[in-house]
Amino acid sequence: MGVLVAVFAGLTGLICYSDLFRFFLDKERLLNFLNSMGPWKFVGFIAIQAAQVIVAPIPGDATGLLGGYLYGLVLGTSLSTLGLTLGSFAAFILARTFGRPFVEKFVPESAMKRFDYLATGKGAFLVFFLFLIPGFPKDYLCYILGLGHLSAAEFIILGSVGRLFGTILLSLEGNFLRLHQYTSFSVVFGVALLMILLAIARREQLERMFRLHYGVSKK
User: Fold this and answer.
1) In the chain, N or C terminus with fewer CB closer than 10 Å?
2) pTM listed for this prediction
């Protein structure tokens, strides 16, 4: 428990005082950029969310928090969900269209080896659960699942609903920052961090269970 508290305190300080944090909290600068797009400003934010799934040049957690900070909980969650769904579907379709050689350009070899079993079966509930787990590499998952047997409709439903919890959590954190409710932000951030640390600590057990579900042994 002491280690978790120390990690939480360290990460909170890093986030709150880093240049990256201050950049994303420069509301006027961000709003000016998005407002310069006129009626397309919401489209611009949705495009940023979609692009970070496909190419991942921007931290996904940062853009999710940004949506809540700029637009509040409800609208921020809605815009982020739409962008994430579009980006996820694009990655899925690209993988399905161009196959494994294309996917390997975006997904590291280590991730391909870890989650290759997902391309061999359907397992709708398992896919939903993987999208639900905090800290799981969901962007890679979109590409890998494109090589599998899920239909596009199944993927959209499982991916969008599975991502929703994490999106709401990030939008809620951003909204607390927007309202200068820093205590509430710290509590929600602490809960999210604890969930991620628990998932990391149990990663090996979870992956072993998933592989057994698919009837394959760990490589």
Assistant:
1) N
2) 0.74
